[in-house]
Each structure stands twice: as C-alpha cells, then as structure tokens.
Design goal:
CATH topology of the largest domain: Rossmann fold
CATH class of the largest domain: Alpha Beta
Strand content: 5-15%
CATH superfamily of the largest domain: HUPs
Shape: elongated
Structural class: alpha/beta
CATH architecture of the largest domain: 3-Layer(aba) Sandwich
Largest sheet: 5 strands, parallel
Strand order of the largest sheet: 3-2-1-4-5
Bound molecules: tryptophan
Order of helices and strands: EHEHHEHHHHEHEHHHHHH
Length: 345
Amino acid sequence: MIMKNRILTGIRPTGPLHLGHYVGALQQWVPLQRNNECFFLIADYQAMTTHAEDPSLIRRSVRDVVLDWMSVGLNPHKRNVHFVLQSKVPELNQLYTLLSMVTPKSWIDQNPTVKAELATLKHAATLGFFDYPVSQAADILMMSFPNGDPRSEKLLVPVGEDQVPHLEATNRIARAFNRTYNNKVFTECRASVGEIGRLVGTDGQTKMSKSLGNAIMLSDSPEEVRRKVMSMFTDPKRIRPDIPGTVEGNPVFIYLDAFGKDKRKIDEYKRRYQKGTVGDVEVKKYLIETLEIFLTPIRIRRQLALRENMGTILESGTRAARKIAKITLNQALKAAGMDYEDLES
Ligand code: TRP
C-alpha cells in the first residue's frame, strides 16, 4: 500500500491519559493509521524536564500510555504504525546537540508554551526544561526525508493547539540549520490541529489536567466516571431546575457535544435547560450514559492490550524510528562538517 504522509507525534509519560488528550490529540491520530507511516513517540526524556525527581511515575506512565493508546484503537501491529520510546533512540540526543547550536536562546524565551509552563512549575526550571523545545524539534526532524528525496509526502504533526508554538520553533530551527550549512537536511513539518483543540475540566477550568484534579481518565471505572460527572461544575446560577440555565461554556454540554452521537437529543436537552424545564441531575445522568457508550469499547480494547508484551511493541517501533533517525543524523553531521571521513583513511 502507498503511504500518504509520514506522521510523527508524541506525548510526555507523566500519568494516565484523559478525555482531554482524546479530544485534543488521540481522536485525530486513530484514522491517520489507515494510510500513513505513523510514529507515535513516548517522550520520556521530555517528561524528565518537569518530573526528573519522580522516575517511578515516568516508568509507570510509559506503560500506561501504551495501554491508553491501544485502548483508543492505535494499533502497533500494523506494519506502518510504530510506538517509539524516546530514550531508546540515542540519535535523538545527537540531533538535539546539533540543533541546539543553531538555536538562539531568545527563541526559547519567546515561546508562549514555555512561558505558560514556566509559570506553573513547582520548582526552579532546569536547563533541560528550557531546552525541551529543541529536543522536541529533534524528535520531529529526525523524520525528515533524505536530501533530494523526490517523494511528495509531507511530514505531518497532529497535535493539540498548545503544541503549535513548538512546531513553529521546529521549522525555524530546521531553516536555521539548513541555511547555516547550505544544505536541505531537514524537512519542515506541518501542524495538524483538531477541530476542538482543548477540553475544559470537570470544574469548568479552561483545561482538563490530571494535576488540576479535574480530569476523567480513559481508564476510569464506571463508578469513577459517575462520581466525577455527578460532582461536575454546571451553571452556578441554577439553584433550582426551573431556573433557566446557560448552555454556552457549561462543561456538561461541552462534553455532550464532544462525545455524544445523538445530536437531536442533545439539542433537546439544551433547549429544556435554557427554558428551565430539566434538572442538572437528569442532564448529568444522560452525560454518564453518553460517556459509558464512548468508554465501553475503550475498556474492552484495554483488556486485550493487557495481555500483550509492551517490551516487544516498543522495541520494534523504536527500531523502525532509529532506521530513519540514523540516516537523518548522518546527513546532519556531514552537513556540519563532522563526518571526518578524511581522517579515517
Ligand atoms: N510536547 C508534547 C507534550 O507535551 C510531547 C512531544 C514530545 C511531542 N515530542 C513531540 C509532540 C513531537 C509532537 C511531536 O505532550
């Protein structure tokens, strides 16, 4: 089969994945497996940039991410689908070193995602933290097409909207390298951002996040889902069901829109909510039903994935990525005059 594009995307293993990851990223990844060469990266070094003091969390999360990915339908048994463990690709560390030499520090200082994360860090930022956009550029650019490759494929990076500054930085770094060494080693990537880039938390905060305690996990049990939905934030004005409520920005309706299939029924609930003819509890019960329909096949696939050998899955995916990374790295070293072939004769 002819593959359309080369895809690389990734995630930090810092905990189990939640509905926000699904809406912002995973949902777009699954259909891409059909006719693209896909590399899904578990960025454990990048996880260390914020969680270096917690190796057991990262270890556990590598496994959780593989399970979560398989449970939503990513399939590493397809020949074109590869799960890659970042720390097992030493070429990435080498590429990162080369790229860091053409990246002005000011590009990092200006990066809005870095700035936002800096504000939430629990301890002083390390050098590794400031460098992670360059390391991410290496993740992506290792997948460059070889110099002079006539293929018209693209390097696509499907991500949530918070990652867009990193992809812009990646292309800027790629251009800087290519310009410095007058050599088209690196292919610029294209971002592909889903329709809904971000999901609000159960508390109505702008972002669902495990650390904010407002997340529903893909691996939550029916009891946990029920408990979390029943305590969800809705419209604080509505102390009685006959008070007209606000649908816009109400997380219960945002989730119904994101996960529900029956648009007519959802619209009906919205109308009744606005008129004040339905209670919060009834709408929440409908949301629980909706989420159960969504999560049931995910739970079934997780049970099957639990029987698989994670080590073998990551080994074979990582091997496939290294094959490409080696070619890119050799070209980059050569472009930078560091192949030293003349010294070997
Ligand atoms: N920064 C991404 C996140 O926080 C993870 C990531 C690492 C990534 N390398 C990547 C995303 C390469 C896209 C491409 O989730």
